Amino acid sequence: MTIDQWIATHETTIRLIFFFGVLGLMAIWEVKRPRRKLTVSKLTRWANNLGLVFLNSFILRLLFPAAAIGVAAFANEHGWGLFNYYSVPFILAILLTVIALDFIIYLQHVLVHAVPALWRLHRVHHADRDYDVTTGARFHPIEIILSMLIKFATIIVLGAPVVAVIIFEVVLNAMAMFNHGNVKLPKNIDSLLRRFVVTPDMHRVHHSVEDDETNSNFGFNLSIWDRIFGTYREQPRAGHEAMIIGIHKFSDNKDVAWISGMLTLPFKGKISDYAINRRQWSDNNEQ
Fold first, then answer.
1. pLDDT class of 283 with cuts at 50, 70, 90
2. Cβ-count burial of 242 within 10 angstroms (0-12 exposed, 13-18 middle, 19+ buried)?
3. Domain range summary for the chain, segments of one domain joined by +
4. 275 HSE (CA, 13 A, CB side)
5. What would the 3-class secondary structure string for the chain be?
6. Cα 225 versus chain centre, distance
7. I need a surface site. Which of 200, 216, 276, 280 has the fewest CB within 10 A?
8. How many angstroms separate the Cα of 125 from the Cα of each of 117, 140, 185?
């Protein structure tokens, strides 16, 4: 059995081990050193946020049984993609795949903020009134499906190695839980880490109710993209403890805390109620 075949066979097990392992570690960290007080009980948040995660996983397995790993294997079998057309060292192909997929995730994230119809889907993620490890996996099923299709297309164009895809999937999942953690890092460690990867304090700014802060720090893993494209913001105006998280118009727990509300949230309100870089903060908050 080749390494690709072994990964394809054990892909679900590998991902579950890392998912529950990182989730457990972050949960303990959040209890020991929380950054902020929660406004909604942890039991309610975790039950509904993780309920949405399991629903999304079921839908994806139903629609795409082979998942990203299967697409990578299929592309390689048929010689599709850049890394199958050009001779590239295997290790370099893995590294370039992980970096390229991370860049695509950044662009996709900017896109779902820039297009009002897509923002309606993405606001399920932003409507969470708190910010903890479960926020990192809280997305509407339609957005998850669209994201998977974009990932499939990228894998095919690259001819991504199967090993690279599983590495990316595990890293992205782990980093999403890490940088959404309600955890406190020493300032010097945070400053060092965010030179390379997205930290909880860096990404928390992105979940502010203030539009200009929401439209910053789009990265999930590598922090370089925000610096290159001018979307980096170091800190929220109000500070991490005082900043308000969520979306101004959605504060009712029926809309934002319960899974039934999350599933119907994209279909509420006018379609033109948001566009990227529309700044609405009050004058006394302006810099």
1. very low
2. exposed
3. 3-33+40-181+250-281
4. 3
5. CCHHHHHHHHHHHHHHHHHHHHHHHHHHHHHHCECCCCCCCHHHHHHHHHHHHHHHHHHHHHHCCCHHHHHHHHHHHCCCCHHHHCCCCHHHHHHHHHHHHHHHHHHHHHHHHHCHHHHHHHHHHHCCCCCCHHHHHCCCHHHHHHHHHHHHHHHHHHCCCHHHHHHHHHHHHHHHHHHCCCECCCHHHHHHHCCCECCHHHHHHHHECCHHHHCCCCCCCECHHHHHCCCCCCCCCCCCCCCCECECCECCHHHHCCHHHHHHHHHCCCCCCCCCCCCCCCHHHCC
6. 14
7. 280
8. 14, 7, 23
**Global pTM exceeds 0.85:** yes
Distance from C-alpha of 242 to C-alpha of 251, rounded to nearest angstrom: 17
Closest CA to 179 of 133, 242, 129: 133
Residues 79, 212: Cα–Cα separation, whole Å: 44
Give the separation between CA 284 and CA 20, rounded to whole angstroms: 44
Structure tokens at 62: 């139903």
Identify which has the larger pLDDT, 248 or 270.
Answer: 248
In the numeric block, which tokens belong to residue 121?
Answer: 């889907």
Q: CA-to-CA distance for 38 and 50, rounded, in angstroms? A: 17
* pLDDT reported for residue 269: 79
